[in-house]
Amino acid sequence: MEKTETKGFEISKEETGLSEEEIKELIEGAIKGKEKAYAPYSNFHVGACILTETGEKFSGCNVESASYGLTICAERTAVFKAVSEGFTKFKAISVISDADSFTFPCGACRQVLVEFGDFVVLVLKSDKSVFFTTTYKLLPFHFGPSDLLK
């Protein structure tokens, strides 16, 4: 399957349950995060913004290391910031890069996102066009907390 083949993975804007204001704030928060990215090696700047169920927003950026394996993605930065402040229930996350195409979360980020349930994901192009999906659509047949409770 090519990266551009998204049939069955996209949801409509209406299905997200997000208000226009929430969508706007998620986009702005991801852009704000991207502006703070530390990417001296790849020069690939990524930002994310996560919205808690109670309305708090946390932005994150990718932070690279000369030891590439220690690099952290923007999505995980945003999630970990929220969790470190006591939030574990999320409504949506947005992610943007400088790319002209949609930059979807990597596998590690998808696994971290599904740890906190099924919620909306806004994947943005640099021109701010939005692809709406959910964490479970990004990682079907995932391993999660319920697998450890059996």
UniProtKB/TrEMBL annotation:
GO terms for biological process: nucleobase-containing small molecule metabolic process; pyrimidine-containing compound metabolic process. It is an enzyme of class 3 (hydrolase). Substrate binds at residues 62-68. Its EC number is 3.5.4.5. It catalyses: 2'-deoxycytidine + H2O + H(+) = 2'-deoxyuridine + NH4(+); cytidine + H2O + H(+) = uridine + NH4(+). The active site is at 75 (proton donor). It comes from the Eukaryota. It holds the Pfam family dCMP_cyt_deam_1. GO terms for cellular component: cytosol. Its cofactor is Zn(2+). CDD domains: cytidine_deaminase. Keywords: Hydrolase, Metal-binding, Zinc. Residues 21-146 form the CMP/dCMP-type deaminase domain. Zn(2+) binds at residues 73, 106, 109. One of its GO terms (molecular function) is identical protein binding. Belongs to the cytidine and deoxycytidylate deaminase family. This enzyme scavenges exogenous and endogenous cytidine and 2'-deoxycytidine for UMP synthesis. This is Cytidine deaminase.
